[in-house]
Design a protein that fits this description.
The protein is mainly alpha-helical. It has one domain: Four Helix Bundle (Hemerythrin (Met), subunit A) (Up-down Bundle), CATH 1.20.120. About 80% of the residues lie in helices and about 5% in strands. Helix 4 packs antiparallel against helix 5. The protein is elongated and about 55 Å long. The protein starts with 8 loop residues before the first strand and ends with a helix. The structure holds fe (ii) ion. The site of fe (ii) ion has 5 residues, from helix 4 and helix 6.
């Protein structure tokens, strides 16, 4: 364990921002899933696409969250505003449950596909996917807000 592990958690705002900007594949996957789930009429023709997109989203999220945790969050040896540290801690703690939920959706989709349960795959599953995407967006928005706060506040400190 790092000697700073008990120090307040903070973010490397520039790195997190860059990571989010370059990760176009992730945003495109999310957009494709959102579009697909928003078109129930065409879902029947694209049920295999839904299964594949969810599997790719799971892999992308695993990489995205790992990179964020490895280089985007760190325990700061110097003072960090308590509210900021708490928000960073809460946001980082959301990664595991988000990944787990995406993984369950991907497994569920694959099982429904194998069982040829077209009805559940095209009507029930998309509702869960939609709900998950809302949660994921809320998490991403939270991180973006933290990035801007951090950038703004470090400018403030420099004054
Ligand atoms: Fe994140």
């Amino acid at each position: 364990m790092s000697e700073f592990a008990n120090r307040p958690l903070t973010i490397n705002a520039a790195f997190l921002q860059e990571l989010k900007e370059v990760n176009q594949e992730l945003w495109q996957l999310i957009e494709s899933l959102r579009t697909l789930c928003g078109e129930p009429m065409s879902m029947r023709q694209h049920s295999r696409t839904l299964v594949d997109l969810l599997s790719r989203l799971r892999d992308q999220l695993a990489m995205h969250f790992s990179l964020e945790e490895a280089y985007g969050y760190f325990h700061n040896p110097v003072e960090v505003e308590a509210a900021l540290a708490e928000t960073a801690r809460r946001l980082r703690a959301e990664h595991s449950p988000l990944y787990l939920r995406c993984s369950q959706l991907a497994d569920h989709a694959e099982n429904l596909w194998r069982e040829r349960d077209e009805a559940a795959l095209t009507t029930v599953l998309p509702v869960g996917v939609d709900e998950f995407l809302v949660e994921l967006k809320r998490h991403e928005n939270g991180e973006s807000e933290l990035i801007y706060r951090q950038l703004y506040e470090s400018i403030g400190v420099a004054d």
